[in-house]
Amino acid sequence: MTEALIHTTADNTGDTAAAPGAQQPVDLQPSDVEAAVHSIADRSRRAARRMAMANRAWKDRALRAVGAALKANTQAILEANARDVAAGKANGTSAALLDRLTLTGARIDGLVAALENLANLPDPVGNVVRGQTLPNGLRLRQVNVPMGVVAAIYEARPNVTVDIAGLALKSGNAVILRGGSAAEATNSVLVRVLREALESVGLPADAVQTVDQYGRAGANVLMRARGRVDVLIPRGGRDLIQTVVTNSAVPVIETGEGNVHIFIDESADEEMAVEILLNAKTQRPSVCNTVETLLVHSGSTVLPAVAAALDKAGVRLHVDERIRAALPAAVDSVPAMDEDWATEYMDLDLAVGMVDSMEEAISHIRRWTTGHTEAILTNNLSNAERFIAEVDSAAVIVNASTRFTDGGELGLGAEVGISTQKLHARGPMGLTELTTTKWIVQGEGQTRG
Amino acid sequence: MTEALIHTTADNTGDTAAAPGAQQPVDLQPSDVEAAVHSIADRSRRAARRMAMANRAWKDRALRAVGAALKANTQAILEANARDVAAGKANGTSAALLDRLTLTGARIDGLVAALENLANLPDPVGNVVRGQTLPNGLRLRQVNVPMGVVAAIYEARPNVTVDIAGLALKSGNAVILRGGSAAEATNSVLVRVLREALESVGLPADAVQTVDQYGRAGANVLMRARGRVDVLIPRGGRDLIQTVVTNSAVPVIETGEGNVHIFIDESADEEMAVEILLNAKTQRPSVCNTVETLLVHSGSTVLPAVAAALDKAGVRLHVDERIRAALPAAVDSVPAMDEDWATEYMDLDLAVGMVDSMEEAISHIRRWTTGHTEAILTNNLSNAERFIAEVDSAAVIVNASTRFTDGGELGLGAEVGISTQKLHARGPMGLTELTTTKWIVQGEGQTRG
After folding, report:
1. What is the pLDDT of residues A265-296, one digit of tens each?
2. CATH architecture of B260-404
3. Per-residue pLDDT for B8 more than 60?
4. How many CB contacts within 8 angstroms connect chain A with chain B?
5. Which residue out of A231, A245, A422 would a mutagenesis test of the B interface target, given it has the greatest number of B Cβ atoms within 10 Å?
6. A126 and A110 in contact (C-beta within 8 Å)?
7. Does the beta carbon of A365 lie under 8 angstroms from any beta carbon of chain B?
8. Same topology between domain B30-247 and domain B260-404
9. What's phi and psi for B66, nearest 5 deg?
10. How far is residue A125 CA from its own chain's centroid?
């Protein structure tokens, strides 16, 4: 999950791993790449103006046309994808990455269903955030409008191409895509299908463009194109996100990493603790809202039952010494190292530590959290309130599974990602987070006194 | 207004212009500065946690204590300021910059009054943005919480020190300040007064800190301190803002530049046009919401009256050839160059051009605008609606002065600045824009199916 796609030096222009079937420009100078990507961004700006004018019915027609075109082009998509997968195998790509790279008929059906779901959601554009009539008679309203040009830099997961394009189009934006070079053949077909579908309903094909053909150099230009690109969304592993966040001059929405904690205090119910831990760790271990560290108050009696249930479910427990001493003999465990507290396993592994107070639990969380989601299991009101107040994460949960930090679960309809930064959006982002606002002031000649 | 305070190269550590009275570290290595600024940021984080817990009454007490302390320390503040001003004069600083640098008893009174106004405003922290009970019984709410550590980089205007500190404290944040070195003696006293006032009411002094003693190197470290600093606000001229925006790895809110347009279409009322143009250009020419370019439809008959009124008010008109041909003989003008369309004069100057259509007016605005504020004067409904829909600026105004793009005028109470970016905040920013949100989820054992 940490495939670094972008070099951190601005002068790097080489992405020599041309995917089969992709059109790779030969011997491009940095200034050529810059001019080409700027030209793509300028076309995107013009397309964005037309997208911003499209009403919901028109945009939904486009989303359904994309879905129908994906179905109609399934064969071509799967063939291109097979070439990417074959090249990946030849390059020794890991099984997990190959799985993410692979499309199947069923996965394409899933993308089509997601587009239909998007078409059924309300339009975030035009929503009035607030408004009033001022004492001087000015009518004032703040309205959601599209961002304009949205760029996405992501790894070799072709489903993201369709996913992020659909979200951007529904919210009235144009999108510039930069996917992993290992998926370039697949993405090239998907972008063509998206563009043709847009044109078929009278919307601009340039609302979806890719800079994949310019490799890492193209991604670097995209990251510096402040003013041309309104927002940049990195999607992928830690290295990719850190590279984008550190090097981008374009405003970035940081998504992702979840080193998620659950704290069981001395008043927590045993049965609830067992069920929530099983759900939070084993329901889908590879995602960001799965729990990675469990902290147990030394006064709690639930540890044996919780540990036994997790052990039985195949979870490997990385425990500190006091936890090990308190575990039933039948429960397997390995010693926790310092790095375990920092690790987002995304697998059937869980770090478990013992604390003697709320204070100690909150200090541990502050030291190690990525600010995604933390939960407390408690029946003590003041502990619940203190945890809510003092834990500074995008989502703070009392007596429920951490798996609820999800746009769909929280009623946002679609999810752009889960923001772990504090600016603009925090936690699950829906379509509204792909819009900005505009103040509209209407008068009849008012001047300022 | 374009004093560049920060070098763009990351290895620049020299700010040799030590202000009189400031404690300037001697022979600091870059790694020393980094460690020192990181240590300041870590203290700021701890202080931010305590500020986040302070209720409104406590924070308001702090703001009033700061006001009283500013009054009590007026003599010391003015003495330090006199040293900065004397050094500025010796360095040949321009009269305009010296004016911004200068504090007087009346100006200190103004700062005290602004703090009192802040104390009277509602607390943005704890406001529930949205909430619902989900079908599974989970109670969900999204609540405004403080950002945490806010940093500000600004020019040699000591009033900004008190202004931004007051806004940050009211919204429950800690703040790290980096003012212009030319104001370092004044800022040093102001920061001491702020810190003592915080302590006097039992809040942490470290909620207000400065990195002025580390010069440009300190500012560079601050800009790279992603994770330690939650948001960075540059305040000042174009060069300062561009430097921060381009070099910061910390999320930035870009404020400022306003190349503001008014378009008079062929249906606009003459009297209204005269009054609005006079107000928008002459009421306070040096601020960002003052009009800089007037576009007049060739079918309008109001130009002679508008131009004569502006000329009489001392406005120098920079006009294209068609406007010049249409001006009354008695009205002075100079020819507009291409650069006039791009210029934010911030003075009694106005570029004036003639257009033959809405289309042409909107194209001109798109080419030259900074996205701050644009207005249309019209009595044509479809023109008004088209202008609102197609002009992509933070504020779009119909039949009123552009001077209304202001936090106070739009009912926000206090103004942090006027954002010209699309992420997080757009247009006038109030206290709420110095907060982020937290999702709070409360259940009784819910797990995800």
Report:
1. 999 999 999 999 999 999 999 889 999 999 99
2. 3-Layer(aba) Sandwich (3.40)
3. no
4. 211
5. A422
6. no
7. no
8. no
9. -65, -45
10. 21
